[in-house]
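Retro notes - structure team

What went well: the batch runner handled both jobs without manual restarts.
What didn't: labels got mixed up in the shared folder, which is why I'm recording both outputs here explicitly, each with its sequence directly above its tokens.

Job 1
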Amino acid sequence: MLSYAELTPPERLLWDAFATGERVDLRTGDPASDDPAGGERWGEDRSVRAEVVRALVLGGAEVRPGETPVVHLVGARVTGRLKLVFAEACCVLRLERCWFEQRPQLYAARLRATGFAGSRLPGLGASRITVEGGNLDLMHTRITAPGATLYDARLDGALLLQDAHLSNPGGVALDGARMEVGSGIVGDNGFRAEGEVRLPEARLGEALILTGARLASPGRAALTCRNLRARVLDLRAEQVTGTVDLRHARVDVLHLPDADPPKAPTHVDGLVYGALEPHLPAARRLTLPRHDPDGYRPQPYQQLAATYQSLGHDHEARAVRLAQQRHRRTTLRPAARAWGHVLDATVGYGYRPWLAGAWLALLTLLGAAAFAAGEPTAAKPDEAAPFNPLVYTLDLLIPIAGLGLRNAWHFTTPPLQGLAYALVAAGWLLTTALVAGVTRVLNRG
């Protein structure tokens, strides 16, 4: 047990202020000397032992009736280790613009609103913590290796990371696996992470916001949100070095940058979203599934097409489905890939059936002009209907229910004979491609 007599002057200030929740500010007023980056050099007049903070948080000091106790310390050098393992805090804890000698250990602690805003910490061990009735405030903090550990944490409010800098190059800068956050994680306004930001299976009541953030984890995952659940996922980061994993995440609204291609290779298989912002033409959004490091996956295309379809943009939805078939074609064997090229060129895999009409019109004009210049021979001169080059060409192109001229007339010159055979083959090819393409579309609903 700590006695009041053994407290240093700054510790007595904190102890006395605890009962009424007043702030104890040990700063000098000189911006240069008050910068926590140089907190290691602060003297005894600005030093507070971590065990004193712990004693207050656990209710070691008297609380005046009608007052709300708070540990609110600014600009201090916190010596020793703040250890609150399995502890239950009796008050709000705010340690702002402080310098920590050792990594705080808060494992499985039950805390009130807690903040380290603007402080410098050599890591933060806060896995399995519960923060009741407030936020975990890490705004403007600088946390170095081994990073911030918050897996299995439960926060009633939000995790605030604005202008925070988490640095653990080659490792994990923030481990928030399986976090449950009542509001969300706010990492905009200058948030930086050197090392992976891990949020797999996190459950956010509102949003994950990374607008303007800078994430760097070269050669490995920069952001992992696999199986994340949130209402809003805002990934408009300023810079991402490394990969992004969104596999099987579920969000209501997905905000993406309009970069083309994406700023980072992004895994999107299984990602489900209700709306995609900002709204852009399909050609601008197709870069996301095309640049998936896992290669071709059908679900990302189907999800994107469904999003455009829900907005009534049928043309954009068809463009996405056509792009899907073209990407899928790259995974097929040579014969199937060749047939895919035929389907694409003739009917756009069924999503552009008008192409068959264009080919039919072009071949009809070509055949009619060529046959008009030739001299046909009647199979049965006394019975043959008058020769018409246009009708004759159509009869060759239409494989079923002929028009009566294909068998009644023929050409003896090799070029026109070859053209006639080619038109018959083209007719069957166009018909087969059209039926195959339309069937593919109908089977997909």
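Job 2
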Amino acid sequence: MTTFASGTSASNSGKDGLSRDALTVLQPGFTGTTAPDWLLRRLGEGLASVGLFGRNIASPQQLAALTAQLRAERDDVLVAIDEEGGDVTRLEAGSGSSFPGNHALGAVDDVELTRAVAHELGLRLAECGVNLNWAPSADVNSNPANPVIGVRSFGADTELVARHTAAYVTGLQSAGVAACTKHFPGHGDTAVDSHQALPRIDASAQVLQGRELAPFRAAIAAGTRAMMSAHILVPALDPDRPATLSRRVLADLLRGELGYDGLIVTDGMEMRAIAGTYGIERGSVLAVAAGADAICVGGGLADDETVRRLRDALVTAVRSGELAEERLAEAAERVRALARWTASSAATGAPARPAPGADVGLLAARRALTVTGAEGFTPLTEPPYVAALTPVANIAVGDDTPWGVAAELMRMLPGTETGSFAGETVGRAVLEAAGARRIVAVVRDEHRHPWMAGALDVILAQRPDTVVVEMGVPQAAPRGALHIATHGAARVCGRAAAEVVAGR
């Protein structure tokens, strides 16, 4: 076993420095809830970061044991996770998050609350040995039809997004966990999911300066330790290459104009926006050459072969002269610098939690509710039928994380029944399944799904006493006997809505 002192480059151990630097800039994933032998071996050879996903986490205790296993091999390893809270959770992928997401926090618009939520989430990560969080999302959700950002954004108002991004960065890093603000230069004005294809933003440079870039400036001012690039084409900045591969975006704009000197991490390189256009090897070389310091890969490709391919691609590019050795060395040193920061933060210890009280995540979820029709509404006392009108899941969210209000209503009103529905003719199916029971219809982004709006038309025509719970971005007009907008689908958002329905 090879153990490195915190912050050391380990460049004199074993493999040559070029190969070590190539491994140092990778942030790979793996499968399973314990570290495989190949990953431990790569840590001994110079790998400095590991990315964790829901598939790697069974419980806080198991996660703590896993991160301890990684640190037994390399004590300064960066352990990264995609834990936004809200819809995108890895710590609680099987149950739903204890924290509302960004859109709910933006709806409350209390920066101290946002800071407190991020701090508490950071404490939970730190307790499990995670020291780098690929969050927050600083995207301004200026396009309501955005298929991948939505409730992951604090909102559509630039100044609101900027102040909450800064508060989130401050709260998270005060717990000793590095923030990785994303998705630079802004993924909000897109109509395509970069997991599936290459999105394009045709806004002018002036619009981008005033809208997209403001939250990233705020994150930099707040001291964000890392920044994640977006796989998007922004012709006003670079007509030829997506931001992740663009020197104009990463070196000239982010480093030069905005003065950012922290770690630049790519979004997942196996996403189709890159893998389907450049390929992951070529894409990784171009990203480092453009100014990226760390290559995120492992959400989909999670094996030793991927690590070997990317290491070899970077080494070959240096030896052929396509990638400057100094650029690769600079990138590796930025990774090590972040490792030194996390080690020093861990050494000082995370601040103590405040005195026990109501859970900050649930408090935030309750405050985020927008309720229409409460004046004439009588809380339910009999178990209802909960109809979840279920859209195709956002890939960043995944299919495995539960959402809705059914589980909470089952607890409050035993005997509650539920079903999931999708498609053009589901309105009548809901009515038939519900029978005489009161209907609670749960939707996500009704404005983006005509079939969903049509189903509500059918249901409300026959059952105007239906309660409607909107768990996405509330753009459609409120309707139903009671309408509750939760601004997100986290477990605590479902509980907060169920409390209103059941009068708790």
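One thing worth noting from job 2: The radius of gyration is 23 Å.
We'll revisit the folder naming next retro.
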